[in-house]
Amino acid sequence: MTKQIFFTAAFLAVSIFSAVAQADKNSDLFIDLKKQDSLFFERGFNQCDLDYLESHITKDLKFYHDQSGFQDKKTFFENTQKYICSNSEQKPIRKIQTKSLEVFPLHNNGKIYGAIQQGIHHFYLREKGKKDLWTSTAKFTHIWILDKEIWKLSEVLSYDHQDPVVEKPVNDIKKLLIDNNVPALGMGIIENGKLTKVEVYGTLDRKTTAPYNTIFKVASLTKSIFALTTLKLIEKGLLGLDEPLHKYWVDPDIKNDKRYKKLTPRIILTHQTGFPNWRYMTETNKLAFEFEPGTKHQYSGEGFEYLRKAIEKKLGKSIEELAKELLFNPLKMSDTHFWWDSELDETRYALNFNKDGEKIKTVKYYEANAAANLLTTVEDYGKFLEYIINGAGLSENLYQEMIKQQVKLKENDFFGLGWEILTDFSNDEFALLHTGKDPGVSTLAMWFPKSKNGYLIFLNGDNVDKLYEELLTKRLYLGNELWNKR
């Protein structure tokens, strides 16, 4: 078997485990270390981000491997470059067996200074245009040390390497993707207010393996980004939630209909404008009121575009500039774009496919739209969802306005500021969600303010029902209840 150097985990004598209580899997410590494990191995091992790797290990790293012997930090880096990162055409990949994780805190006079983490992980060989080849499975133990509030890997024990066993195809996500002609799935999990898992399955184009940082088109999930950008402007006093917008913008199609004076950010973010979804879908191909603004809910992308134009006119800045200033830069969402700009890495884009598995022609947009066409990754949008679950830097009053039942749609179904609200979940939970749908695009963002749990699902195909059923009913928080509400 080709020699490979596998990261893993920290070592501590077995006798110590018996003296340390295991961290609860809902605790901040467990979730922090679960997230750190995911980021460390995805970036350091799978993506070979060696700067990130070096900044998250201690100077005196000790690495024990049952097949490759002992390594100090210097040898560890040399072997990583030689065996893990030297050949992009045949790249070793590591994936965690999530349910195997255990965490044990290390205290000094009652204060946590580190933690032991152990579990099982699997290794694969990734080649372009081929399915990842499972090469081995091993157990690991890590010792993580807190260094100026940053978790760093201090000691690693990688042992009990075994050849792979045959995977069971039942309910396997990759099999579901193939069977339903959906090439790729991106999924992000938020637990207790923290992004703990980012997973991408399948291929970009039915040939090339989809990387961790695959770029997906997310359709109407754009609206949630724009809605929070608007609320951040309101928080800064640059816009009023109930401020009339006609002082800054009146669409030429409705200039003779004085009902435009009733349009405000609140009316638009709750989809009560009276506009159709898009004017091009009407017989006249012109924008017009279909009912009195503020009297009922009707989903409208036109409304969000109307608000964008009013904001841009008032502030003299584009939505791209405002979103970067208020969200993308602070949250380090470097892979999120309103349109196909020069910074977009097209080689990572998940092409879109219809229900029969036929590729849909990619339409590239070259101007921002507040309601659609956002391009992003699971990690970037996961950062956004994590941020909004934790208050988004808004005042308590404005945050409560966002999650308030502004307008009723039907029983247990409402709309807040930019988000649909579903009630009547178990555990006294309620959820905010948004979906996105375009040809070859199906997306979902879901979060629960009470428990601070949530998740993202990005799919680049049309035939998605079986995938949603599998994910919601068997894998995601209160997903079975959401599935039953559909």
TrEMBL record:
Q: Which residues form a coiled coil?
A: none
Task: Give the range the annotation lists for the signal sequence.
Answer: 1-23
Task: Describe the location of the Beta-lactamase-related domain by residue ranges.
Answer: 173-464
UniProt xrefs under InterPro entries: AmpC-like, Beta-lactam-related, Beta-lactam/transpept-like
Which keywords does UniProt give here?
Answer: Hydrolase, Signal
Molecular function terms in GO for this entry?
A: hydrolase activity
One Pfam match, by short name? Beta-lactamase
Keyword hit for Hydrolase: yes
Keyword Disulfide bond on this protein? no
- Protein name as catalogued: Serine hydrolase
What organism is recorded for this protein? Pedobacter lithocola
